[in-house]
Specification:
Layout lengths: L1 H44 L2 H8 L2 H6 L7 H34 L4 E4 L2 E4 L4 E5 L4 E4 L2 E3 L4 H16 L5 H18 L8 E2 H11 L3 H5 L11 H14 L10 E5 L5 E4 L5 E9 L5
Antiparallel strand pairs: 1-2, 2-3, 3-4, 4-5, 6-9, 7-9, 8-9
Length: 280
Amino acid sequence: MQEQEIFLQEATEGLTEILKPYQQQQNRRQQMVELVRRCIQCAEKDDFLRLDELLKNRLAQDMEKEPELQACTEIFARLRTYANAKVDRYRLDFIEDVKTHAAAADLPIEIDFPRFSVLKGIEGTFDFPGRQTTINEKKLKSIDPKRIISSVLKIKRQLYDRPYDPQKFIDSLFQLYSKLVKDHKEVLGYPIPMQEFYLAYVISLQTKAFFQNMDKGKFKGYSLGEFSVDIWRYFQANTGGALGKYPLQLRSGRNHALWLIDKDGETRQFTAITFQEPSS
């Protein structure tokens, strides 16, 4: 009985190995068939964006080398030329439409296609083939200029249209920093890890009602984007430091860092925060 099991197992494994290259060939042929079907669908709908992506696929190039599919070569070449031309025209119209909607919303947009930025702390990319736009790492399943600017406006309101006083902001950071320094049994100038500080600051914003009942509806959110923009706005205000004399210092690095906007408007990784003794 054991010999039969060994024989059957060996036979099964042998046939499987024989079948593998044929199965791989069949799978590849099926992929080519599917690509042609998609090209046909795109041509019927004049979906030049998707068509352009399909024809730039490595598989499409490989198909043109297949002897029995060489008839595709001329058709693919003509479709590529057509799709490229329409994509180029659409891109120009698209960029102008985005700029027009941004101007109407009083948003200072800068476009370096496919990337764009609006104020500090708001940036994204346009993905034509994927029919989506990424804004601050959030996906918008649309490349409609009106919807894009509408989404940007929501983020702008969240980041910039909140009550904000740069002096009160930096003073509140200094107050928390001083407490954390004492908790660490250190002195002014000691670097508090940025992640620890950010968490503590968010906790400091919560009301007594939240600590009595930590329901998410009572939680006051404060995103990293808001924190980053608030720091940037503080640097721009030139208030002269916490309490008018203690200068803020952010220390850059990679380990356990947070992405924040520095005084030059550049987004960098910072690992710690300190306040220094005023210089005499």
